[in-house]
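Milestone M4 deliverable, item 7.
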Amino acid sequence: MEQRQVNPMLKTALEFGPILGFFAAYLWLKDRTFVIGGTEYEGFIVVTAGFIPVFLVCMGALWALTGHLSRMQVVTAVLIVVFGGLSVWLNDDRFFKMKPTLIYLLFGGALAIGLMRGESWLQYVMDGLVPLQREGWMILTKRVAGFFLLLAVLNEVIWRTMDTEVWVYFKTFGLTVAIFLFFMFQGGLFKQYGTQDADEE
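Output delivered:
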């Protein structure tokens, strides 16, 4: 199915709106306790319960507007439903905090398997966004796989050793900034192995 163009601001709002909404709701409700059906739930669990349908609605709207969702978005949505649902059902925030770890392990591991087969599976996902020679894709894939595995370890360390508020700040801003900086520092690779100039000539 051909991907349709959509207003970039709207696309960004649908992708990042639920995360920022989760952060704002957590700051608002973090010190409150709710009794639902005779069971006490901390604010974090209530916010998690609200985040799941909001995220799914935004992903559904994005799919309706563009006609496309990446594999990463689909897998992320499934893990949010599963691990977020477990946190709410069992009244245990640990499951939701484990979710980023599993996401990064899955994608980092998948990229590593592709590399062992002599393939860059990252290229299949990003080929339209980043024009690179094959050697460049292989190098970038190795770096991204290692970076994802590092983020998985970092998430585990933070949620297991620090309080929930630190983890929420890390999840909302720390991971986003880390990914942004990582790709910024790949500028030399993109310049050396980029194919755009060759195509123009």
